Amino acid sequence: MLRRKTTLVQTALWLLPLAFLLVFYFYPLGTIIKVSIDRWLQEGLGGWNTEIIQRAIGFTFYQAGLSTLLTLLLGIPAAWLFSHFRFKGKQFLRVAVTLPFILPTVVVAAGFNALVGQSGWLNLILMKLFDLSHPPIAIQNSLLAILLAHVFYNISIVIRVISSAWEQADVRLENAARTLGAKPARVLWEITIPLLLPSILAAFLLVFLFDFTSFGVILMMGGPRFTTLEVEIYIQTMHFLNLPLASLLALIQLGFSMLITSAIIRMGRMVIVPIVPKAREDSFKKPNKFSEKMIIFSISTILCCVLLMPLLALIAQSLLVQEMVPDGSNDFRWQISLSFFRQLFNNPRQSIFYVPPVQALRNSLLYALSASCLSVTLGLMLAGVSRTNHFFRKMLNWLVMLPLGTSAVTFGLGLFLAFGLQAGAPQWYPFLIPLAHALIGLPFVLRLVEPALLAIPRNLHWAAQTLGAAPRKVWRHIDLPIIWRAALTALVYAFAISLGEFGATSFLTRPDIPTLPIAIYRYLNLPGGANYGQAMAMAVILLIVCAAGLMVVDCLQNYQVDHPNTQEMNDNA
Question: What is the pLDDT of residue 573?
Fold first, then answer.
């Protein structure tokens, strides 16, 4: 009887997540394929606008390749810095490098807008210093703005992947080469680079995948001149309602993304980069030479300028307002004020169609809470199956990893085609949004929870079952006390991912139920200083929430290191 009940529980553990994937992932993708095939059967290849397709594909590869190379150019020296030296401020710099990767794209775009936009701080300072009438820096809506944002966003991947490999490299090979008289350049070319080549290629592919599927950065930083596959899908759907062309572009994008993801998996380097890895500081050397100190200072300064200046400019734009000097000179002065934050709660025109930004924040929090709870529940189910059945673990891991290789825009288009075109469908959008967010966060949750469950010794379960404990009791008294920190970390990740999700939400949102990223995007495109200031204030709120989530993860990891409860339970068993 107990074995039968256990079998039923295991069957339910993989049937429920599988049904969820079939309904909300494979069915929407099948709808995209159906729309494209129907158009192809009706009009043939001549019915497609090949010029739009070629332009979108070409620019997508061009900007992704260029962005990835620039990220590696700055990230590899930074990885060398983190993997070889210990110095004052290293922990702060590590957090500064980590934070941009978990920020929503709208926050990144708002930060660069506040720094180098037409009314950005650099332009305001230069105009004041040199008495200029026009902003001297004009990189907004340019390729350079896209590249800077991508470097800002993805440099943490390069640093984490390459520095981890560099820390574990066998330094005896380099020392032996130097002893035999090899010059530093030859040691680097013939020993260091071959040792690091797998991690460099892994970082390249990971960054290229993120740049290839970039949507929010291109849409908000590139302007109408630059359209990638992601942006063109959005334009063809939301502006022209050309669903067949949007579906074809989505299939092309999905095919390339799956090829890149397969290449990463085949290399055996498909890892979720740890947010706060624990470095062995005692194994690093302290810089003693003047040249080493200057290199460390230079790299640290460049990293701080690239990573912190946009965030500091964002905070400053949300807190400082211009006030006229009361001396009749028509000059303005900057004053610290919370007026932009207070305006988030107001409806100045008392319009029935106006949605206060605080309501967008409430929507985002509700969606994020629902999506994170759902993704963690599904992740725990899948992890439970992985522990009991190797075949299901291999199959379900592939199925769950597919959403990671699918862009949010393609996924949003599929949900829109599958569920959003029927009569009365918009009333179900508030339910579709957290479901989409849960699927996007599910691969990350599984990668965090599954190792914790697999690490539990099987003899604990055997002992409990021998004593007659039911599966529910085994779960409550053995598994949950061990994995709760990993589950809570996964919950924080899923919450942050949902809170900042922009691509899929842009297809499913309604004007009366915007999320905070959608509201920021709208306010950035509205004229007027008040709208711009409120966009900055909302972006700061998202920044604070993401930073708080990072601190929670760091505290959980520190607590797990200081209180190894798992080992104590194993010893007691």
Answer: 35
